[in-house]
Amino acid sequence: MAMKRKTVEYGLTASALIIVIAWIALTTGAIPLWAAEAVFVVAFPALVLTLGLWWRAGGGEEDFPFIGY
Question: How far does CA 11 lie from the centroid of its chain?
């Protein structure tokens, strides 16, 4: 089953938006630092993994190289 680049873009966009929204909420004082840190700890690895999958999606190769996370 080939991975579609558009499908992976949804996860990439969602994790990037979550990080940006948490950063804005932190700078405006809407959420405390610990809450923003918790969001970053979860969303940043998801961003890195989906970025790696997005980069490789549609490449035609079935094997994904180790992306370091």
Answer: 6
Domain boundaries, the chain: 5-56
Q: Say which amino acid occupies 48.
A: V
**pLDDT tens, position by position, 31-62:** 999 999 999 999 999 999 998 888 877 666 66
Q: Which of 11, 20, 1, 19 is nearest to 54 (CA)?
A: 11
Nearest to 49 by CA among 12, 14, 22: 12
Structure-block tokens of residue 43: 């969303």
CA 39 to centroid of chain Cα atoms: 11
Q: How far apart are CA 12 and CA 6, in angstroms?
A: 10
Q: Which of 46, 63, 44, 40 is nearest to 10 (CA)?
A: 46
Backbone angles phi, psi at 4, to 5 degrees: -90, 135
